[in-house]
Amino acid sequence: MNPNSSLKPHRVLVVMPAYNAAKTLKKTYDDLPHHAVDHVILVDDGSRDETIRIAQELGINVFAHKGNFGYGANQKTCYLEALKEGASIVVMVHPDYQYDPTLLPQIIRPIEDGQYDVVFGSRMKGVSAYKQGMPWWKYIANIALTWLENKTFGLNLSEYHTGYRAYRREVLETVNFLSNSDSFIFDQEIVAQFVAGNFRIGDIHVPTRYFPEASSASFLASTIYGLGILRLLARYHLHQLGLWRSAQFTCHPLRYAPSVEAKPIVNHS
Fold first, then answer.
1. pLDDT at residue 219 in the model
2. I need a labelling partner for 172 at 20 to 30 A (CA). Which of 52, 74, 75, 193 fits?
3. Residue 206 within any structural domain of the chain
């Protein structure tokens, strides 16, 4: 807990969606700028390693799913628990150490200044992600899908597929994120909801790391994810045209009802 939190106008919570992150969790947590963070929550999605034990030793507030429900399900629990904890800004930081945790103040600053409601840490802005180690096929797919998403959403972002994101509380309380998929496509469904809600979205450059311990989707998983994005863009376009209205893209006050059961893990330290 940040001892100076009472002096800050915003309550900043970091959420970590975790799955088998034991090798990189401590490095990620240690690199967080703790002076800028009020609280850290980790949601473990059925890890088979020592993720929970290490998180407890670090004093992180841990919630555990009974099984591996998926990346989207993990995020749902992350955001629900962060809102219950009183967050005014929620930052998703992957515990795999692929994104630089020290850049958190830069990511939240546009929200604190009232410029944006949502900020993405983009790997495609500034130094080429390909030069930083992103596989060539993933780099090309990222560029192509981002171009399509910009056309569909009427935006000009450099990347939509980052796992480093910051949200103003009100956007999470307004969009229907609990109706989204429990899989990786959750990331893009929530973006479509932000656009439908006319929220302001921006991005800043963040470097990325590629190494064996960092999580990375396989070619097959990435292909399935890409096809899912195409289906999502088609559904969103039909919704906007009024040809196939979807409650998923309709804003409404959030009801704090969990999508899956998450057991709080009590720290005994």
1. 72
2. 52
3. yes
